[in-house]
Amino acid sequence: MENFSLKIIEHIAVVKVELISATLRDSQALWDLMDVESIFEKKKIIIDLSSCNFIDSTFIGMIIKIYRQVSKNGGSMKIVFPQVTELESFRVIGITKIISCFPTISTAVESFNPDSTVRKISIEANNKLNRPVANKNN
C-alpha cells in the first residue's frame, strides 16, 4: 500500500494515489487501504488522482465500487481529477456525472462547504475536458 497515502484535512479523509499509471494491479491495494484504514466509515472522502497520467478501466471501476460503498455507508466522495490526456474511458463510464470531480485538493475540500460556489469538472461529448478556471475565491 506504499503507492497510496492518507491524510485528514478539515475532517475529510484524503487518499492520494501516488502512481503515474493506475491499473488492474493497483486496484485491489486501493480497496484494501480503504478497508484497513476504516475509510469507508468516514462521511467525507476525497480520492486524489492528480499524480496519475494513465488510469485503466479496471482502476476506474474500482473507484466506482469504492464510491458505491461510501454512499451505502452514508458518506460522500469526491475526486481530484487526474492529469490524463486520454479521456475516452472516463467519458464512456460517465464518471464526472456519477462522482463530483475537481481540479485540486483545495477545491475538492471547499466543495464540501454547503455555501461553496466551486465548479466541478465535466467531460463534454467530444471528449473535451471542461476544467473550471480557478479564481481568487478557490
Features:
two-stranded parallel ribbon; Transcription Regulator spoIIAA; alpha/beta; globular; single chain; 138 residues; 5 helices
CATH homologous superfamily label? STAS domain
Would you count the extended β strands for me? 9
Category by helix and strand content: alpha/beta
Largest sheet geometry: 5 strands, mixed
**Mean pLDDT level:** 85
Q: Indicate the CATH class.
A: Alpha Beta
Distance between the termini: 31 Å
CATH topology: Transcription Regulator spoIIAA
Report what the structure shows.
- The chain is α/β, with parallel strands linked by helices and 138 residues long.
- It has a single domain, classed as STAS domain (Transcription Regulator spoIIAA, 2-Layer Sandwich), CATH 3.30.750.24.
- 33% of the residues lie in helices and 24% in strands.
- The chain has five helices and nine strands, in the order E-E-E-H-E-E-H-E-H-H-E-H-E-E.
- The strands form three sheets. A five-stranded mixed sheet has the order 1-2-4-6-7. Strands 3-5 form a two-stranded parallel ribbon.
- The longest helix is centred in the middle third of the chain and has 16 residues, at 57-72.
- The protein is globular, with a radius of gyration of 14 Å.
- The protein starts with a strand and ends in an 8-residue tail after the last strand.
- The model is unreliable at 133-138 (pLDDT under 50).
